[in-house]
Amino acid sequence: MVPLPRDDLGDDPVDVTANDAFHWVPLHDNGLRERMATITEWVSSARPQAMVIDVSVEVTTLVRLLGIPVVVVAMPGERTDAAHTLAYRIADHIIAPWPAEAGEPGWLQPYRHKTTYVGGITRFDGRTRTTGRAARTQVLAMFGAGGSTVDGAAIAQGRAAVPDAKWDVLGGSGDSWADDPWDTLCAADVVVAHAGQGSIADIAAARTPAILIPQERPFGEQAATAKVLARQNLAVVRTQWPQPSEWPALIDEATRIEPQNWRRWRTEGAAGRAASVIERVARRRSTDGACP
């Protein structure tokens, strides 16, 4: 592992988008300069056959300028800005971590020839689903580390609205966290979560009914994902934290959705399909005349 310096060390960042060409390239930022230098030095010494870039347009551009094939991971939302367009244009291949059946965003259509929809990627792929249900309804409120507007007061309102249910909370603004929430996720009768790609894939792998409350993210990422899931009858979606009186009906609605519908998110084998794409790009480009 190569630790990268922070790229936001400046107190007063200037021209962070380079006239809207990028997302974050502040002038004279020592952290940004050191980060890019670290990546360049690693590429020079390791000489990779390909690199996978998840979210950084800037790193995608740098690596491609160094002559390395890049595989870019697409993200939901409206990615029509100049920076994203640049990244998708120069990518050797694009991996979309959702099923093709979920729909093709308009902005990905020009790159259809080099895009593979692999399904939801989760670390729980292949894990045996634990079984068993408690007599009391189990509600899991699960929020990742990407930021949440849900606080303890909101959770308390939910608990009070369904006193017959047992609520567990993982992540969010609380202090609870689990490195491996698999058993808790499988044991839940319903999970309340945001609509990030990782959380959705984990929930789909566990086949757990879900109530999703998308959070505000750049380019409408979570809102776009939640809209697809609602349309495909995979989860109950609300745009904001429900009022206390809504909880009993929401939990009932979520648990009436067939859990096996989650198979349509295609988590089984998704990581392997992504790995195959990356390997093909690396092998193909390594035989195109490049030096080993």
TrEMBL record:
The keyword Transferase applies. One of its GO terms (molecular function) is hexosyltransferase activity. Pfam families: Glyco_tran_28_C. InterPro entries: Glyco_trans_28_C. Gene3D superfamilies: Glycogen Phosphorylase B (3.40.50.2000). Keywords: Transferase. Residues 186-237 form the Glycosyl transferase family 28 C-terminal domain. SUPFAM superfamilies: UDP-Glycosyltransferase/glycogen phosphorylase. This is Glycosyl transferase family 28 C-terminal domain-containing protein.
